[in-house]
């Protein structure tokens, strides 16, 4: 989500530059090229091009880099990857659930 907002911000700033908007800082008129903004935008675009979106297939086994949780790919439609965690669903008798678990937060 945040990545999309950065992408949109870059798009807006590039549009402002293309439209000829000028910068006024402390009452002084500046050209965009007098700032580091065009260089920074170029670096951002270059780094975005380095991001690779893999093609995953159902049954591929992947692991979260931080938590170490294993996941299995269910579907990859090119935009969204659907995953199942490695741990199976747990079945528990409803009349014994509160013997071993406590409610942390109730859903609204």
Describe the protein.
The longest helix is centred in the first third of the chain and has 17 residues. It contains three helices and five strands; from the N terminus they run αββαβββα. The two termini are 24 Å apart. The relative contact order is 0.08. The mean pLDDT is 84. The strands form two sheets. The protein has a three-stranded antiparallel beta sheet, with no helix packed on it. It has a two-stranded antiparallel ribbon with strand order 1-2. The chain is 31% helix and 19% strand. Strand 4 and strand 5 form a beta hairpin. It is α+β, with helices and mostly antiparallel strands. It is elongated, with a radius of gyration of 24 Å. It has two domains: 48 residues, no CATH class; 48 residues, no CATH class.
Question: In terms of topology, how is this protein built?
Answer:
Layout: H1 2-18, E1 23-25, E2 28-30, H2 37-49, E3 61-63, E4 70-76, E5 81-85, H3 97-100
Antiparallel strand pairs: 1-2, 3-4, 4-5
Question: What's a concise summary of this model?
Answer:
By secondary structure, the chain is α+β, with helices and mostly antiparallel strands. It has helices at 2-18, 37-49, 97-100, and strands at 23-25, 28-30, 61-63, 70-76, 81-85.
